[in-house]
Queue: 3 jobs
Job 1
Amino acid sequence: MRVVVVGGGLIGLSIARALTARGVGEVLVLERSSLVSGGTGKSSGIVRAHYGVPSIAAMALRSLPVFEELGAEVGFRQVGYAVLVGDENAEPLKANTAMHQSLGIEVDLIDPAELQAMWPMLNVDDVALASYEARGGFADATQLALHFGRVARDGGARIRQNTPVARVVTTGERVTGVELEGGEVVEADVVVVASGWWSATLLADLGIDFPVEAYRSELLVVDAGEPLPDLPVISDLVSLQYCRVEGAGQFLVGNSDHADFREGLVDPDDYSNIAAPASVEKYAEKVLHRFPGFPDPSVTHTYAGVYDVPPDWNPVIAPVAGVEGLVLAAGFAGHGFKISPAVGDLVADLVLEGDSTDPDVPAADFRLERFAEGRPLVSAHPYVGAGEMR
Ligand SMILES: Cc1cc2nc3c(=O)[nH]c(=O)nc-3n(C[C@H](O)[C@H](O)[C@H](O)COP(=O)(O)OP(=O)(O)OC[C@H]3O[C@@H](n4cnc5c(N)ncnc54)[C@H](O)[C@@H]3O)c2cc1C
């Protein structure tokens, strides 16, 4: 079987790794620029199994051993992961935590005092409850993607960089390959489109609508003014921010307030790579509120990345109806890193078995057609004000 994977990001390389591991002899990854030059290169790399959608929580759980086995090779630091909520979100947190425990995820509810014992400089005045996953933490998306690429190559895959795909080629209702910019045609039995936001353009050429928007997300690196120990990653659903240690004495702060979604839409090939001054002010205020104890905090630098966001903030990982041999794996909306090992395995299942082999990860959840059918993949217990916390 000849498989072409379009996109040399984390997802495309994980898919190439999974396919070669299962004996697919001819796997070719085509990347328009350099490997990890898309969203992967900007990832915060947070690892957790906390999701409101059970199949995605299960994928995160299945992916954890990959981080644990690779450890320092992919920069994995298993510092733990905590979700903080206010009164309004205590019930959804309890319900989601119970769902996680039923899947086998090691997670506990903890009270604000226990949380403060882990992060002594944390202000927990407005925190009603937290959940804590000891197996969570963070790692390096670039290193993980390049690891997948290396394993795929060792398994016989080929990777071509600076090779933009112009279009997917079909004959009747079947895929027959791809045409590169410049006109070369590469024949294939299966084409997997794993090109992030840009996947929509390739599908649109075939008359297929993949509703996905490019949403810019800003990040701050804050110097705490003192050395920091290994502290758990924090997803702060009260102030709508997330924080993790970054090097010694610094921490990375990301925005989880997506109320301004439409204002954040950008051209993913042409966007500002620094946080706007007004955002820096807003985020700094939230950081000072949550961490009042730092002696001399300052913002060292900022940057921005782009999420590929479908209407329900969840990915499509599925064969595309009506075009035999075409598979789409995109729309990870800022949360594809931690599930990327399991995504590769699911795509290998779809290509080789025609269905998911994991009962906790039903393939039907990730169909493209769910948008047109008005059946989005959403949490049964969404967080008030933070519904995108999948
Ligand atoms: C700022 C930021 C923070 C994040 N933080 C986290 C986090 O903490 N935890 C987490 O789980 N996830 C996180 N994510 C999400 C995660 O990093 C992404 O979901 C994941 O890296 C996406 O990988 P991808 O391969 O789908 O896309 P990409 O990395 O965008 O790769 C797509 C590739 O396709 C290529 N391409 C496009 N068009 C073509 C074409 N026509 N021909 C050939 N190649 C093409 C692009 O050049 C690109 O390299 C974050 C993302 C961002 C942006």
Note: The pocket of flavin-adenine dinucleotide is lined by residues 6-12, 30-33, 37-40, 42-46, 141, 164-165, 194-196, 198, 217, 219, 305-307, 330, 332, 334-338 (CB under 6 Å).
Job 2
Amino acid sequence: MKITVASGKGGTGKTTVAVGMALALQADGNRVTFLDCDVEEPNGHIFIKPDIQKNEDVFIDVPEINLEKCDFCGKCSEICAFNALLVAGESVVVFHELCHGCGGCNYFCPKGAVTLIPKKIGTIEMGTAAEGLNFAHGQLEIGVPLSPPLVDAVKKKQNGGITIIDAPPGTSCPAVHTVRETDFCLLVTEPTPFGLNDLALAVEMTRALDVPCGILVNRAREGWDIIDKYCKQNNLKILMKIPLSREIAGAYSKGIPLTFLDKEWGVAFRRLFRDIREMVESERNNRHQW
Ligand code: SF4
Ligand code: SF4
């Protein structure tokens, strides 16, 4: 079971929820892996405090042009969807920071002038935490703007059992790569117009990716029902609410997981997981019938 915890924007409390659910399920005797795919700004480790036992560098293959073989036909530049190659007169410029490492230029070059060389884009750190929780996070190399290949590499570190994935905020490529091909996406939002605007975009993303989703309202306040109304209109289920609370904000600022604050949060996160599992199973049954 792979559950992504995502949000349309940063600062909604997505990591608090992902960490809370992972720790609560591990404490209940499950085999759990926590993957932090927010590779530009990973912060799950601040709460989980894993013992890092292994590092792995992640590379993509970028082109190097042999000008002695090249006849400057421009084919490589034409086929590169990311504008990472420019052929001008008798020179070929490679913009490594734009290259996605697809290998197309190497494949299509008629002169065999393109060699692919590895370029480091980041590192994955792996380890274990409280009660045997498996942990991995990616850290993007400074100055590298290309996070999707690193996100994909972190996702490969799942280890069977239950995988909780902390997604990058937003709905652009890194978030899409994180959410796709998972069993469920829990969307964390807050009851404000900004929260609603970004939630609506995130819901569209999960629908486009065909991943079932449910909603968690963080910093919920009495009478602030903008998300409730939206969910009702759009046939979405609110699975949990976390109240706006000075105590919770204080714990967050000190890197204390909710489950350490009060054991009732462990109960709540396990209930949340049960509800998600029921939704996933019912979705699978519906698809099977079709
Ligand atoms: S496709 Fe090959 S031969 Fe043509 S410009 Fe690119 S590197 Fe040179
Ligand atoms: S490897 Fe792909 S993305 Fe990179 S320069 Fe070649 S065609 Fe463009």
Note: The first strand starts at residue 2 and ends at 6.
Job 3
Amino acid sequence: MSGPVPLLYTRGVETYYGNIIALRGVDIAVFEGEIVTLIGANGAGKSTLMMTICGNPQARTGQIVFDGEDITHLPTHDIMSRSIAQSPEGRRIFPRMTVMENLQMGAMISKNGTFEEDLNRVFDLFPRLKERQHQRGGTLSGGEQQMLAIARALMSRPRLLLLDEPSLGLAPMVVKQIFQVIHELNRSEGLTVFLVEQNAFHALRLAHRGYVMVNGKITMTGTGAELLARPEVRAAYLEGGRQEAAQ
Ligand SMILES: Nc1ncnc2c1ncn2[C@@H]1O[C@H](COP(=O)(O)OP(=O)(O)OP(=O)(O)O)[C@@H](O)[C@H]1O
Ligand SMILES: [Mg+2]
């Protein structure tokens, strides 16, 4: 490999569920300071790739390297203690805990002793969470829960933020707001983001680069603008996005 080394890369990753192959030799790279998106249809393997990066399930073959270290066979808790934070699909917050308690859980993995500072930072990004800090997570609206899931991930001060479908089930206005925050974090702090999305239109507009996954394989890659312009991408992934953008 020539040029700079990616913060995260995968080489030939294959992941199975039992005997069924879900990832068929995936190569992706995410450089420091980039927003990279992975788009693809339902069941393509997007969440599987994100979960494989986090070590659950583990890749059966291939290699995953973060910050120069092979993390392919590390247990999940070791991976998450290496400055990777994940907001999983379906925003798995703790429903019975309050907003504040959820954020405290996110901070536990960080060793910085900067809780107050980090809390103020996520409250600045999501003022709604500050207003609702004593409310139980499970009673928040869908959009608020998504904000909480991202805020909780940010509490550990990650170098790499993994986001799985943050726009799922949210109204266009809320999606815009959440993508704006991701853009802002990347612009002002240089946060590196790997974003899995079905909302290809917004994701490709936000991202520096993107990958398209079909049936467990990467079939296309390019800058966000390049992929947005490709007729195959438009035909397969952009119909909903265009309608939404027109609203
Ligand atoms: N725990 C599991 N056990 C068995 N098969 C699974 C499991 N999780 C996912 N799969 C299968 O692996 C394939 C990839 O699923 P995955 O969730 O990664 O897709 P995805 O691209 O994230 O889809 P979506 O956009 O619907 O979230 C699918 O065929 C799915 O049924
Ligand atoms: Mg998924």
Note: The pocket of magnesium ion (ligand 2) is lined by residues 46-47, 89, 165 (CB under 6 Å).
